[in-house]
Specification:
- The structure holds two protein chains of two kinds.
- By secondary structure, chain A is mainly alpha-helical.
- Chain A has six helices and four strands; from the N terminus they run ααααααββββ.
- Helices cover about 45% and strands about 5% of the residues of chain A.
- Chain B is mainly alpha-helical.
- The N and C termini of chain B lie far apart (about 60 Å).
- The chains are: A mainly alpha, B mainly alpha.
- Chains A and B meet through α1, α3, α4, β1 and β2 of A and α2, α3, α5, α7 and α8 of B.
Amino acid sequence: MTAPAQPDPPGRLPELLAAYADGELDAAARERVERWLADHPEAREQLQAQRELSPENWRLWQSAEPPAPSEAAWAAVRGSVEGEVCNPPAEDAGPGRRKRLGLWAAGGVAAAAAVAVAWWAVRNPAAPPVPNPEPPRPVPEVVRGAEPAQAEVAALPIASDDDVELLRVPGGAVGWLVAGTHPLPDVLVLAGPDDVELGDLDPDEWPDGGPKMITGPGDAPMIFTTKGR
Amino acid sequence: MPVVSAPPAPAAPSDDALLERFAAGDTAALGELFRRYRAVAYRVAYRLLGREPDALDAVQDGFVKALLHLGKFRGKSSFKTWLLRIVSNAALDVGRQRKRDSWNHPAAAAAPPAHAGKPETAADAELDRADLRRAIDAALAQLPPAQRQTFVLHVDGEMSYREVADALGISIGTVMSRLCYARQKLKTLLADRVAP
């Protein structure tokens, strides 16, 4: 007694034949494909086409190897990797925190300068008075100090229409299933409720109501929504 | 006269051993890992970007991220799989950034590739290779990024279907599907280059 002929291939035929030609199927799947091919000799032509497709592409690829970088270029890359890996920035000093530390540092420098000027004036009474001595102005310094921190805020990568791939849309009633590559290189860190200060509600700024949050330019993004009523 | 055979060369340390040494502060281990995988990482990045400086940027970024986030790696796949996943993602990021830059600086984006300006006295073979590389770059650029990444990891990263699936966090079936579509499309796009 022989097994009944398989009416359908065990999966999508071109993909299976390509994987079979590549030797990438596990033993069970390989056996199923071979059994199906035995029942459908006409499909051997398609298998041959897949066999030719893959090696031809490989040969094409091998004859167009990318240009090899110089040893100096490699040394520069390795040096940069070593520098960044062996001396990484402190984990807890994110852009927002660096900015905040910068504010404190700028304020501290301004205060120290004020104390130094006062001490110098007391110790040198004969010195000519400073015309129109202005008090230290920490606020403008702080604003200037904040600019580099703003520059550190990376643009958030957003997937565009050519970044996603429509693999299969079964039927019309189930809607669209878009499958694509996650656009972010890493997990996106969002700020939590403890990371922001909530101020008074400002109806002018949020006509529909919402929190007034005190944030810095380097702080992590946050998603919030109104609570359902 | 007795024959003295040379002692066998010491076996190269495994990736795991190098990673342990690196974690203990041995920078020589980092150098060995870099030498071991720089070529394949560069090949993958180059195929996704088509320019040497961009590819080297992606390789650098990939090595840094892979080594700084070894805690997420935890040996679930090989180090090569982990590294190439990050390098290919970094390359796609560089490509997106380049696309954004080309919107802002169209003149810079239209600049010819580095090898296009070589003098005509260069060897014909090198010119042919450069021409072929341009054709391949143009064909690959027409694939959706996910298909391109899958195809390049398999062909240039020399990764099996299973390794590509692990690297990208997708099923084997999706790898099969993407590779099949990518090959069919590349076959059409490079029809005049593929020998009958």
